[in-house]
Amino acid sequence: MSGKDRILGRIRRALPDGPSPDGPSTEIPRDYLHAHGVRTPAERVDLLAAHLTEYRAVVHRADGEELPALLTRLLAERGARSVLVPPGLPPQWLPAEGPTRVPDRETSTPYELDRVDSVVTGCALAVAETGTIVLDGGPDQGRRRITLIPDHHICVIRVPDQVVDSVPQALPLLDPTRPLTWISGPSATSDIELDRVEGVHGPRRLDVILLAAAPGTQ
Amino acid sequence: MSGTYLGMPPFPAAAREAVRDEVLRGNLRRATHTIRDKRARAVAELADWDRLRAAGKAVKDHTLRHLDHYLLQLEEAVTAAGGTVHWAADADEANRIVTELVRATGEREVVKVKSMATQEIGLNEALEAAGIAAYETDLAELIVQLGHDRPSHILVPAIHRNRAEIRDIFRAEMGDWGRPAPASLGDDPRELAEAARLHLREKFLRAKVAVSGANFMVAETGTMVVLESEGNGRMCLTLPETLISVVGIEKVVPTFRDLEIFLQTLPRSSTAERMNPYTTMWTGVTDGDGPAAFHLVLLDNGRTDTLADETGRQALRCIRCSACLNVCPVYERAGGHAYGSVYPGPIGAILSPQLRGTGSEIDASLPYASTLCGACYEVCPVAIDIPEVLVHLRERVAQGGPVTRDGIRVTLRPADGHTAERAAMRAARLLLDHPGALRAGERLLARARRLAPRRLPGAGRAWTDSRELPTVAAQSFRDWWARERSTPR
User: Fold this and answer.
1) Which chain A residue has its CA at the smallest distance from B264's CA?
2) pTM of the model
3) What is the average per-residue pLDDT within B332-348?
4) Does A33 sit within 8 Å of B276, measured CB to CB?
5) CA distance B329 to B371
6) Calpha distance B257→B264 (Å, rounded)
7) Is B89 left (phi over 0), alpha (psi -120 to 50) or beta?
8) Of B320, B309, B317, which is closest to residue B270 (Cα–Cα)?
9) Which of B14, B75, B233, B363 can pair with B338 through a Cys bridge, CB separation 3.0 to 4.6 Å?
């Protein structure tokens, strides 16, 4: 008998009373909150900023016109000579001058990615209540590994459009068939005497830019 | 479950040793209190915690009651997304499947994400026997592996080690496994984490095969979910060409939406954070992003036997947050190793004896490793009534009764060592049924109170090893009552 038949047989014998479900999760009480509080869009963005900061991400604000200068400064502060760029990153975000742009290629080896200093991406959405950024591999985010191997990740969130209050609000907006990466603050460990140390394997520095539409546009 | 540590003494003996270790007690006390206080604050932030807890419990119970349905649905979804599903009835079968899958890649080493399931089945040892090196990449698991040690906590497995010990382990052992620690390595956690980063990075970058577990599997979509903090999980889950995930069958949830409950309750219960730094979700394989081959090994290994026990099956709701460890007065003093399994603390005391059966001395002793204070139930994010299961398992150990082992219904004999207890209970029943005999016995006892020993002889000795015998009253309550009532006021 195969492992599958054996396991399924055991389950059915263990549950002599188990009826076939009519639909998924029909009997689940879902009276928990859809969001913890009522906020204006601006308050939602402020809460996201506060929670990101609490987890030692560094939060900046800019509009479209200010963005290239801010990115230039953040990359220069880290001494970045090269920056990974997903295929769909808006070209006007990065300054024409500046670190060498390394495109996100399927053929790049992990060793090649390890030599790149920084990476700039957009995101799928952000969750204010938990201080979380979600990446789904969209054109402005690239493959999962490009936000993992370089030591410095700059993530741009379009506010307030890409910000939701809560986890229950985030899930319906995501496509589970895409690879999803949820990021709440930079990599961290508390394994040694519970002392929190940032940056073990993922980027040790996470800069988050809250990108508002430039005044007069939109 | 083959995870009994060889030669492990039963809990009381192991705990006695651990309680004498003052460094261990100090480390544990500090760790458990820090995490439990932070957790309480994180939970208090959510006004709907009780409702989330009830929903989490309901999702898990619903899934368990329809486990065959959801596993088949999961298999279909994973297969449709380009993954391959394997079914392993026990540890040997799971280890054989994983070993064969690694062999088929031609590789001789794998990187591993921290996973209780692979520890439970002894996968590292099985791979080693097949000539395959398995590298743990979670910092705490690395400390445990390099120290030739056993994990002592579900969330922070190296909590029993302090920084100086970790530095010594890194200095002595890293060189044998790969990049050595710098000769000047100090004991600052930052320096130690940096040494681990460099040591492991060379493994991540060259790894072709990774082995993981999963926190959740979504039946509806075939999505796998791993929560972590360091990024070692992301490294293992995205860089290698082949990914093999070994996951207990109880980790399945019906819908993608169900994650909205557990993504709120698990991080807060576990690390006391609003959200853990990294969560990775993947569905089968994605062209050009992440592993080209994905294998899911669904693990039974005693879970269906646990499912067959209507009281005990609630242990399968566990989402491995470890909140119950941090509030347990017994765990805090005895430490993780005394439990003799990869699942320590209150959840270990009910899970291990069900997964492995109560045949061994250590497993028969685990249901007694508790004061039944109920703190573990209070903090459990899926409302497992651990005290209820403990009492149920104690009865099973002492009285015997029907259980399912390897899918077969058998009648368990009472465990050795409980003969005296049963005799005492029978004697008590006799006395309580015969008030005259009870009265006479009480009077006799009161008269002989000066002769009462400090410690009981024979079978009662173990009980009085760690307890004071109560003193015998000068007169029985019945006599006192009779006298009080007859004395006019």
Assistant:
1) A167
2) 0.90
3) 91
4) no
5) 8
6) 12
7) alpha
8) B320
9) B14
User: B282 to each of A176, A177, A203, B245, B388, how far by Cα in Å?
Assistant: 8, 7, 21, 12, 37
pLDDT at residue B467 greater than cutoff 90: no
Q: Does position B129 have pLDDT exceeding 50, yes or no?
A: yes
Q: How far is CA B320 from CA A22, B249, B250, B323, in A?
A: 29, 14, 12, 8
Nearest to A11 among B140, B156, B304 (CB): B304
> Which residue in B80, B5, B39, B18 sits closest to B270, CA to CA?
B39
Closest CA to B114 of B99, B134, B132: B134
Reading the block at residue B420, the tokens are 């005296």
* CB-based contact, B216 to chain A, within 8 Å: no
- Fill in the DSSP letter of residue A113: H
Q: Is the pLDDT assigned to residue B295 strictly greater than 70?
A: yes
CB count in 10 Å sphere of residue A166: 18
Contacts of B13 (CB under 8 A, 6+ apart): none
Q: Choose among A118, A30, A138: nearest CA to A76.
A: A118
Q: Does B300 touch chain A (CB under 8 A)?
A: yes
pLDDT of residue B365: 92
Q: Which of A13, A22, A28, A196 to mutate to test the interface with B (most CBs of B within 10 A)?
A: A28
Query: Residues 328..357 of B with a Cβ closer than 8 Å to A: which?
Result: none
pLDDT of residue B274: 95
Cα separation of B431 and B427, whole Å?
Answer: 6
Q: How confident is the model at residue A24 (pLDDT cuts 50, 70, 90)?
A: low
- Region for B159 from its dihedrals, namely left if φ exceeds 0, alpha if ψ lies in -120 to 50, beta otherwise: alpha
Give the phi and the psi of residue B441 in degrees, each rounded to 5: -65, -45
- At A31, list the tokens: 């009276």
User: How far does CA A162 lie from the centroid of its chain?
Assistant: 12
